[in-house]
Design a protein that fits this description.
about 180 residues, about 30% strand, 5-stranded mixed beta sheet, alpha+beta, about 20% helix, L,D-transpeptidase, 9 strands, signal
Length: about 180
């Protein structure tokens, strides 16, 4: 009896490994080639100036930033807007840009990390990645120390630094798949 029972368990194990292997293959075969790359068809029009859009209200949401729920990041104003599904701004805040900017386009959040060490050696939290440029991953993060110091311009970094409070808000809002619109 013990011999037939162990054969049955071994057979179930082989079947389970085969099923998991098949599902893993299917998942890897269905990953889009453009994951983490800008969606050119949905790109907002890029502005030619690096000045705020509205001189009377520099915190105003840029007009060419799309519609619906989204994160909007202006590389020219160094500002982020968290926009609800109704189109209303839930929160806006200043950020410290990375050494390498993302190209103006529409992206999706591709990965998140609760706590890691940044490419500059700084302990960071609430990392929300959405793009890459020149082989560098780009995303929002907050330094655990609370610092928002500008990065070394000679370093190839993609961390857009925000305060810890703003990092908490971004973490809660920008889950995997969330739309991120980058404007100039």
């Amino acid at each position: 009896m013990a011999r037939s029972s162990s054969g049955f368990v071994a057979g179930l194990t082989v079947a389970a490994v085969a099923a998991v292997s098949f599902l893993a293959y299917q998942a890897s075969a269905n990953v889009p080639d453009d994951l983490g790359k800008p969606h050119a068809s949905a790109s907002p029009k890029a502005a030619t100036s690096k000045t705020p859009r509205d001189k009377k209200n520099p915190a105003a949401l840029p007009a060419p930033s799309g519609a619906g729920e989204r994160v909007v990041y202006s590389t020219g104003a160094d500002r982020v807007w968290l926009v609800g599904a109704n189109g209303k701004v839930r929160r806006t805040f200043k950020v410290t840009p990375s050494a390498i900017d993302p190209t103006p386009a529409t992206y999706s959040v591709t990965s998140r990390s609760n706590a890691v060490t940044g490419s500059d050696g700084t302990p960071i939290e609430h990392v929300v990645r959405f793009a890459s440029n020149q082989g560098v991953a780009i995303g929002f993060s907050a330094a655990v120390s609370g610092s928002t110091a500008a990065p070394d311009p000679s370093a190839r970094t993609g961390g857009i630094r925000e305060s810890r409070a703003d990092g908490d808000a971004m973490w809660d809002f920008a889950t995997i798949g969330q739309k991120v619109v980058v404007v100039q």
